[in-house]
Write a structure and sequence with these properties.
431 residues, alpha/beta, seven-stranded mixed β-sheet, four-stranded mixed β-sheet, 17 helices, elongated
Amino acid sequence: MADAAPRLKSLVEQLLGAPLPVRIRAWDGSESGPPGAPALVVRNRRALRRLLWKPGELGLVRAWVSGDLGIDGDLYTALDLLAGLIWERGEDARSLSQAARDPQVRAAVRGLARMAGPFPPPPPPPEEVRRVRGHLHTRRSDRRAISHHYDVGNDFYEIVLGPSMVYSCAYWAGPGSTLEDAQRDKLELVCRKLDLKPGQRLLDVGCGWGSMAVHAAREYGVSVVGITLSQEQAVFARKRVAEEGLTDRVEIRVQDYRDVTDGPYDAISSIGMAEHVGAERYLGYARDLYALLKPGGRLLNHQIARRPQKDESAYSVDVFIDAYVFPDGELAPIGSTVTQLERAGFEVRDVESLREHYALTLRRWVANLEAEWVRAQRLTSPGRARVWRLYMAASALSFEHNRIGVNQVLAVRSPESGASGMPLRARTWGG
């Protein structure tokens, strides 16, 4: 008799002390749970071994990435339901270990272990980062982290990002806009905030596939230096610059921001890069960019932010993101970012939240990936494609529910005279 699903449901509810809001479909074809709800598909016993060996988020993610666990039904609904039950309750290894003192919980774990089959557990999926001992955010460790995330194939990113090849929050006139229009509007917004003019020099920190550099040079007549730590991004960006006939105005370098010495620049854009810097290095990052600007020069820092915590020393990077998506990445509250920029000498002139815009962007990226799912898996690996689908969908929900945000901070290296060069009513941005 096929009864794995009802047994699993009973044991998991016993373990968590709450009813499961999703259905369970097990490897033997059995199913149990609320009718009409998305189904958590447990494809084999190996998924249980992963969960028992690494309780909480890491075990769930390893099972997802390996394909041992899946979801049948709307992914966003399922993640919302599971977030309320697991992640937002803090069901990590420590809390489950403490709960294991309860006889009922111990009995549930023993029951799951019997269903899981013989240990030891399977190894982590190959897509998981292999940690190397050493200090965070050295030039070497940053190159390694950037390569893990970005050097997965330009063809894969073209599927996800579409023709714009912009890997940051778009700027939406409305939900009916196209992704390409919204990304063009974001680049336009950045250029207007920086008040770019022909003949000026722009440094684009973390230039990605060259979209900002090309747009600024073509539309505003500036000379651009774009820097990235990704070899694959640089190859793509250089080809793009050549095709646009902009080689005389755009230079793409594989270079760390700490190694740029050819200032001063009239303006600096840093779009979706500062999340890789780290809290300990952030003041140094801000000071380096300040030193590269001429007096009166502007910085546009576009960065994801998290909500502040009561005890900031307790902040830790999300396990899934750190192990599979952005190794060593860190998020800071927007107040901390503004403070660090001001400590470096900048005058912060404008902060604009684009939180809802990122949710819309991520949902479009997920739709792009799902539309070419088979090809995306072939270009990278099935596990890597599952990582990207999960992280983008979960991130969209986090932006929608105000768990994280994204902000554009416009700052000026105001001269001693105090003449910032900013208009009295800046929010029109010349548009």
